[in-house]
Amino acid sequence: MNITVEKTKPLRGIITIPSDKSISHRAAMFASLTGGRVVIRNFSNGADCHSTLNIVCLLGCEVQTPSEQVVVIDAANAYKNKNENYMLDCGNSGTTMRLFSGIIAPLEGLNATLTGDLSLSRRPMKRIILPLELMGAKIKHNAFKAPLLIKGAELFPVDYRSPVASAQVKSCVLLAGLNTVGKTTVTEEYVSRNHTERMLAYLGADIEVNGTSVSVKKSSLEPKDIDVCGDISSAAFFMAAASIVPDSDIVIKNIGLNPTRTGIIDVLTKMGADIEILEQKTVCNEEVGDIRVKYSNLKGITIEGEIIPRLIDEIPIIAVLATQADGTTTIKDAQDLRNKESDRIKCLVAELKKTGAIVEETPDGMVIEGKITPRGGCCTECYHDHRIAMSLYVLGLVSESPLTVNEFQWVDISFPEFLKLVTELTDY
Ligand code: S3P
What we know:
CATH topology of the largest domain: UDP-n-acetylglucosamine1-carboxyvinyl-transferase, Chain
Strand content: 25-35%
Bound molecules: shikimate-3-phosphate
Shape: globular
Structural class: alpha/beta
Radius of gyration: 21 Å
């Protein structure tokens, strides 16, 4: 589905942002490890989390959806069928493949093959294969890429220093440690998103955080119900849109505000955005709140170092913001963006240039000069990447003439409700 976006009137109103993808994945996976019955409320509608849910089902859980976005997982019979070679399709989802690898590797007698779509089959898996092999895992792979053939085996604890600040790597090792006798520790240079640590603690695991290190001991998890908050990475597209469309004033409700995810709020604030957190509470060990964003004049900034893992998924929309900010925005230390659903540095730079943006690719990021008026009148590509699709859409909202985003259906990977929410903010 190709979509053509026109310059919009101001965005006005109140929207509720849908379920967090990272937390939904973990809720379904960890529920499958409890041996009991877990009700998950506000589970993601995105295709990625449904890949995880299908796998939880294949692995022996009984999964029911009694009402919209409520998922009930009964794990009484999970991981029991030792004779089967499970074929587990992770679709487009790196989180599904990397976290399930950690779950399956220590389960003796279990055999599984994890596959993915074209994009996932190109993504690096060495980052999880190496630490799992250090623990004694038995994994066959295609030159460190999917498909991964995992033969569950007894593992040994590891004290692992991760060369990348990646929540998927950290979570994979911690999940392997959860079923390994002894203490498994992961240390990262900068703290990546910590939903795994928080949810494992909520479910009663023996887990300890010490600065940038996390340790886990073999634990069983208690079946407890989980409420999933809204996804700040989805909200980011609306925070950005309201900041750059003149006279906008919106409230976004139910956003996850875990500090390991709020880099986008820090960046917007530093760029001079008019952004205010209205209310904050804690739900299932995660901070949640409402945010008001109004249009404002933005200025370019430098984004680098420790903040990068706290906004890694928001860099495509930050690049769009930068085209609408006065001065230079420099993004550094973000080389891992080249390993996402697409090479987000290369692809973004190419597409932004088509619209007249002044942007240069660097090995670990990009440099963007603002403020420009995107000329529109052209067709852009999203490279099968949901976040590039939505970022280009937001740019279209301030383009001189209509801007087309090809294959916009890729938005369904994380945020099928995106267009409906745009309409809610423009239909007044
Ligand atoms: C995720 C971690 C991040 C992020 C991805 C989701 C997670 O990936 O980009 O969208 O749920 O753990 P990395 O761990 O590779 O940085």
